[in-house]
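Before drawing any conclusions, I looked closely at one protein's amino acid sequence and its backbone structure tokens, quoted below without any editing.
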Amino acid sequence: MLDIITIGSSTMDVFVQTNTKTLKIRTKKDSQEYIAFPFGSKILINDLEHHTGGGGTNTAITFANAGLKTGFLGNIGEDHNGDKILRELKEHKIKILGKRQGKSGFSVILDAEHDRTILAFKGGNNLLPIELEKVKKVNAKNFYIASVTGDMFKLAQTIARTKNKSKIFFNPSSYMTKKGIKYISPILKKTFCLILNAEEAELLTNHKGIKDNLKELAKKIVLEGIVIITQSSKGVYVYYNNKIYSAEAKKVKVKETTGAGDAFASGFVSAFIHKKTIQTCIKAGLNNAESTIQHLGAKQGLLKKDLFLIAENDNRNIKIV
């Protein structure tokens, strides 16, 4: 039996670097920054790189690197980009459980000053990779559900409803959390470990406050489960066994942040499945994310067999707050 199956997207990410500045627009209620391009103009690109991405495959790579028998349940496009994604998964000995159908998911990441904007095309990632009645034949000790849209959400619901002997790790995106807690409740109530960022947590609870949100969300998932709220460069908070743990992120030279959330989640989950202490799990997630953001591309900096060794030698302080 497989150790873990990831359910999520596969994409080709194109990183576009320009000299474009951000423009801040203020309203009576708040202010927002925008990437601004003059209408009708031609913008020169300084650099352009292609890398595979997608929450389903990003996490699958870390799980495989960590020595877990890994499967990917999702779609791979019937095109050149899909060929590259498929080769990469096979190189990591990841079992392909979905289909090749539709166009590959495609993202354009526009870098501007200190942040980025992503143009995302879901393509075949919205389609069912397997008939729902065949889900009973797909088995693993653990399932990791990443951001899913379209018919893939129906698959995620079916997995959560039917795999009662498996642990469900759930990492929803803002696409899903913006629809409210009721929308994802069928998955939440079967979730053992919920991983999301501070903005996504606030969208589900409708109020601010990390500690309160951790406790409130813990009531929505499996009894004695885990809730994790990441805060980008500020670190992470983890609710586990009625305790709240916090850890700060290390200051590293950031090249690109795409995939950092996937890297943290998969690092943490890998360590947890390997029965590491909660402190080591937190450090494994942080180290994986901190390594990734020093590279361009969601998979480029992912740690490999040294994931646990680095975490166990990490002397950063994990506080109980």
